[in-house]
Amino acid sequence: MTFGYRQANALLFSCVILVSGLMALDFINPSLPYIMKSFGVSEYATKQLIVFFFAGVCLSQFCYGAISDNYGRKITIVAALSLACIGILISIYATSIDVMYIGRFINGFGSGGAPVIARAIIADAFKNQKSLNKAFSYYSIASQISPAIAPVIGGAIQQYYN
Question: Which of 21, 54, 75, 126 is the most exposed place for a label (fewest CB within 10 A)?
């Protein structure tokens, strides 16, 4: 079974959205010891950055489906990824761990739109159950790309740009 041009583009775009949203979680992992040292906080306080990110992701899951159904997929994913970028900027310029928590929460809330919208795009593009199942198998494969490459990229950024 092959996909049509429109379906293949929808699947590719969905996978790119998914990977870009999920990378925000794993980018920071190599920098956690540097963040701990920079802010002079405990390991526990530094690990809370992951908790705040996931809290944002979890809460966002209640919103993005309805928003994208009402206002469209495109504007919703642009708004979600813009919000994620705002969270990243807050995190970059944070002067305390508390500000970093806020940035990570906002980043998580924005990034949480990626898997929701990516799944919705696939559901919109594939009506045949067999092709839908195949598309979701590619989606699952794409979800594993981020944890594989994001820490490497994050570590390189930490190494070269501190």
Answer: 75
